[in-house]
Amino acid sequence: MTDTLYRVAIWLIPLIIAIVFHEVAHGYVARMLGDQTAAERGRLTLNPIRHVDPVGTLLVPMMLALANAPIFGWAKPVPVVTARLNHPRRDMALVALAGPGINLIMATIAAAALGIWVGSAGGLPQAGAGGFVAANLINFLLINVFLAIFNLLPVPPFDGGHVVEAILPRPLAAHYAKLSRFGFPVMLFLLVILPTIAPSANVVARVVGPIADRVVGLLLGLFL
How many Cβ atoms are within 10 Å of 76's Cβ, its own excluded? Predict the structure, then answer.
């Protein structure tokens, strides 16, 4: 039981921090570009209680952690009203990119912290409180990179889907945007169903994973 709780903790804590910052970044950029909706609804806060989705933030990540599967999760989306943005199509793409952007910034900070720690101590502790902090820091780096790359997939309702909408001609973009209503089924299909029925078409293993590994390697290479 102790080992199980430890594994859940070292993945769930960094995941919650990563997805909260991801959502708040969307809201802050939206406010900068004219949409005050997130601010009006009290969502521009780092208080995780305001962002936690019982299923996506807690249940799913804990089940994945216990199953030794890739850890993924989501928070309650920060509300953004496209019509309130100064330049709706362009600004919605910028709002979408803010989430992956902050994840990559936090991943860089984590890599820098690991580099400083290793440089000053000659290595990372493997046990005790120090080992717990080190494990959280390593997982924070991995989770932020994975979230950034995964959310850039050009499929609604992911952030990459909003970028595609901004590029497509308006009539085609309107039809493409309708796919966002199937957000949860799309995520379930990509993460669970597709890898099961067609391992060769596993988007996470064959697309997201290799890119994330490359980004993690580059970040660690800068600071270690």
Answer: 15
> What one-character DSSP code corresponds to residue 180?
G
Is residue 72 within 8 Å of residue 60, measured between CB atoms? yes
Of 46-50, 91-95, 140-144, where does mean pLDDT reach its minimum?
46-50
- Segment 111-133, tens digit of pLDDT: 999 999 999 988 899 888 999 99
Amino acid, single-letter form, for residue 179: L
Q: What is the rounded distance in angstroms from the CA atom of residue 103 to the CA atom of residue 172?
A: 30
**Calpha distance 193→198 (Å, rounded):** 8
Do residues 19 and 51 make contact, with C-beta atoms less than 8 angstroms apart?
yes
**CA 134 – CA 112 distance, rounded (Å):** 13
Take residue 131 and report the two structure tokens written for it: 């080992």
Catalytic status, residue 165? no
pLDDT tens-digit series, residues 183-206: 778 777 777 787 888 888 788 888
Q: Which residue has the tokens 């970028």?
A: 163
**Of the listed 11, 21, 23, 61, which one is catalytic?**
23
